[in-house]
Amino acid sequence: MPPITILNVAEKPSVARALADVFRQSPGSIDRPMTRGEAAQIFACDNVMFPSVFRQGDGRTIHGPDIPHTMITTSVRGHLASHDFGPQYGWSACTPSALFEAPIQTMYKSDMEPLERMLLQQVRNVQAVVLWLDCDREGEAISDEVREVCLRGSGGRLEGRIYRAKFSTVLTQEIQRALRSLGRVNDAFVQAVQARSEIDLRCGAAFTRFQTLRLQKKFDGFDTGSVVSYGPCQFPTLGFVVERWARIETFVPEDFWFLEMMIRLNEDGSTVPGVVMNDSGGGGGGAQRQRAQQQGRAINLSWRRGRLYDRVLTMALYESCLEAQEAVVTSMTGRPKNKWRPVPLATVELQKRASRYLRIGSESVMTAAEELYNQGYISYPRTETEKFRPEFEHLPLIQSFTGVAGVFGEYATKLLSNNNFQNPRLGQNDDNAHPPITPCKAVEPSTISDQTQRGIYTLVVKHYLACCSRDALGKETQLTLKIASEDFTAKGLMILEKNWLEIYAPWERWSTGQGELPRAEVGSRITPTALLMKDGRTTAPTPISEVELISLMDRNGIGTDATIAQHITTIQERAYVTKDAQQKFLPTKLGIALVEGYNSMGYQLNKPDLRREMEFECNLVASGQKNKGPNYCPYIGKNARMLQSSKCRSPQAR
């Protein structure tokens, strides 16, 4: 029987090259010269052995027998098709609210037409198609677009012969596993992406036209060719920045007062005779005070009340403490304390940690991570999963790092000895598509020439090795004293075993405070060395940081793990916000005006509620509980009614 000829379609050229490399490494395979098609490179390899593609399709692993296949491999470049309104719904041809019911056309832009023609030509001579698009919802939608072109090009001959490969890295063993467990395109995921895309197009276009036509003449620097854009995700993202700015602008500082105590203890816990010192430095002779300060170990205690905003009340409590002179030890506790190792790394956490540790913006993080993935350094970087499958083999991966010079090799060797390895913790989230972000190739970071990619790779490796380590162990002590009616406490920590903190240095630390405290006897009386009343003033919050912004977006369902960085970049490109060197955001005059303008009309479009509701509806579609169809999401209706209301009409239309 002649070999089965398969067209393999990847999402990007780098993945197509990686697939071709794996196919040519198959025992007995025969590689053919690469050819350049109209729009992409085309690789060919004969006699690639794996179970017949026609026995597959349900995603279950097939163990044999292996038969020869001819693998034709090429790629697209993301989405093939685009969607827009027809010319009869141009800017001057209809009202913005009409776009909520206008028909949407599917089209291929000029730069994608060569790819479409190439696929139409390639499917004429193949017996099956395997789609190697990224294994997330967006990749599923692109798979559907490629499937539609392939079915059209084959005249329906390939119906039922288009398969979906599930993989998270382009490593040999992962691709070989995918070739034995081919499935189908997840149509529920496709519908969910199409639903979100339609909502974003209708709402984005309608509100962009409305606010551009209404507001562009109100701001300096905007001419008739400028567009004041709106996006269902970018606007709540802008809203978080403006809300923080508003809190800063309306902040009114308040004075507060608090008490501080210092005592001295010998290392055996015995007390050192002290002299109560008030804020004027009085309370005893200078020589006696000096002797007290030179003996024992100083322990600083904080007031359990924290602070008070009433000076008279604070002064009264302070004077009662001075009159009491002696404090009584009411509690002395010591207990083991752990600092837990991190859970496996997902996309949102990668973006937050890269911003915090490396001062790299979220868009740059994802660009660098994608390139590392394409080169086989890390697994697929767009994932929500925070737990490893039980069958994941950690020890061989850690073993590969023992040959790397420097910190990684030393720590990996230590991790594999003395029972130091621990299976990673299980996080809460699992997208059931990709594993957590992990290193796939053990190299010395200095061999990666790009500085941003080098930093991201280092972070991913450190995080993974930390996940496979033991928790840091310490001993916490807490001392509580009562003087008059007031309680004062001190905490200290002694680190017994750093464990995962060793590899995560210098980014992760465990503050020991005052170290392990001497054990004072409960009931003993201590004369404070110092007892002071101090004042302070509340300060305004700082501008929102990128870490905080990503956290708020993730918590409120604004964007996905794959698009959060894109939305943050968009509001910067639209000149709605600026970002400083400390990764903090401030809104521009235009950004403030947009949010406050809608708020003044009673429409809080900057709030995340509408988008959260829409994402919930799309998740129902993705899980198969709801179908994409007419009136599938009340989100569109709410926005349409908003633009049709009298508050949003032009004065001439009222």
From TrEMBL:
Pfam families named in the record: Topoisom_bac (PF01131), Toprim (PF01751)
The EC number(s) this enzyme carries: 5.6.2.1
UniProt record, GO biological process: DNA recombination; DNA repair; DNA topological change
Catalytic reaction equation(s): ATP-independent breakage of single-stranded DNA, followed by passage and rejoining
Keyword Phosphoprotein set for record: no
Gene Ontology molecular function: any one: DNA binding
SMART domains: TOP1Ac, TOP1Bc, TOPRIM
This protein's UniProt keywords: DNA-binding, Isomerase, Topoisomerase
InterPro entries cross-referenced by the UniProt entry: Topo_IA (IPR000380), Topo_IA_2 (IPR003601), Topo_IA_cen (IPR013497), Topo_IA_cen_sub1 (IPR013824), Topo_IA_cen_sub2 (IPR013825), Topo_IA_cen_sub3 (IPR013826), Topo_IA_core_domain (IPR023405), Topo_IA_DNA-bd_dom (IPR003602)
Gene Ontology annotations for the cellular component aspect, listed alphabetically: nucleus; RecQ family helicase-topoisomerase III complex
Chain ranges of the Topo IA-type catalytic domain: 186-643
Family per record: Belongs to the type IA topoisomerase family.
Function noted in UniProt: Introduces a single-strand break via transesterification at a target site in duplex DNA. Releases the supercoiling and torsional tension of DNA introduced during the DNA replication and transcription by transiently cleaving and rejoining one strand of the DNA duplex. The scissile phosphodiester is attacked by the catalytic tyrosine of the enzyme, resulting in the formation of a DNA-(5'-phosphotyrosyl)-enzyme intermediate and the expulsion of a 3'-OH DNA strand.
Protein name, as recorded: DNA topoisomerase
